[in-house]
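[Solved] Which block belongs to which protein?

Original post:
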Amino acid sequence: MSRPEVLATVSALATEFGNATFTPKDAERVGVAQHRLWSAVGSGVVYRLARGRYQVVGEHVGLPPEGIAIPSVEAARVRDRIAEFAEDGVPAILGNASASQAWQLPLYQVEPPPHPVLLVPRQSGLKAGVRRGIRISLRDVDPQQVVLGPGEIPMTNPLLTALHIAAGPRLALPGRLVVLHGGLRRHWELLEGDGARTDPLGATGPRIKVQVKRRTDKANVDSLRSFLSLLGPNDVGLFVNTGGFTSEAEREARSQESRRLTLQPITGLVFR
């Protein structure tokens, strides 16, 4: 939704319910459809307290600070938990739909999570689940795909975030396309930035070329060379394959001196 639509939505909810909790049916009773409610949650002006229970954030009917799409209280709590994990030697990052909210990606057909989601390595010794208002999810993420995002929170980059969301088993094709388009656009904006944030592809060039393959087998060096032939001297290449890449293809990518290229394996994700 646009900013005026979000403001109108949260104004209607605040007028009717104030600081009291309400359900999606309650919201529909005052003219706020479910997709509008989810958009308000995604914009950070409405909390999802538990399944089916919502609350307007504080008293405001405006949007959060520029560039932060999750409530500031949650952002502070997430940073504190990440710092606690770091003290124990466990790297933790914001991920899944929580990272989508932070990057302000469209959550079309995806209900925002009731708790912020932190990703920790599978070998961390931690168990998945909700603890102290934070959901812990076990997933190994390449450190090169982690950036310091909005709110100074480490999180998966916009493209990887969108790919994780689009791989959801209950997400229909239109929803996947909306999420992926938003992820690519936000990723491109990140690359075009002034360098204040970490650039996951090492590029500030004017054009990025992306090739995405949905294959169960690993992409070989021939597939990579075919993609390389499409890259100009000032282009940045991003080759995505759901099945990963052969060791020969990875060596070929590392050997490139004149072309800026990133291989993005999305193993473990199944697009149905």
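(Second protein starts here: sequence line, then its structure tokens.)
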Amino acid sequence: MNKELWVKCKHGLITTSFDGEGTVFHLDTRKYYMTNETAAFLLELLKDKHEGLALSSIKNMLLEVYQINDEKRLDDGLVSFFHDLEQHGLGLLQFGNGGKGDISVRNSGVKTKRDYINPKIESELDTMLVGRQLVDLMTDISTASLAQGVAEIAE
């Protein structure tokens, strides 16, 4: 049996990110969370992998995309992120699943690595207070992300 730690997100997460921040909406609990750029990257990576991803694959993807000089800082950041995932009911950890669904790291074509920031999921937002404003923000972020993607394709 594979003893490696695997991480998976719960079903029903909607994620969006723009300009260094992200939001997560959990359809089942109807709760919103704010994230930093690194957490948004990880959630986007994990959300469609129903079997989850091996910790080694997650670390390799981060090393491919981010400038990381201190592996202990990376490990500490991931431990904190996984704790946040479980605490907010957004994901879970398990030992091994036989390699199903894992990804292999391949050259992503990243020319300039981004500065690494420890991934963080902020506490839930009060949907009664932010309600419409948050929906507007998510719509703006999605629209801006789409426009940015179209611009990149046009280049």
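Accepted answer:
You had them paired correctly. Confirming on the second one: Residues 5-126 form one domain.
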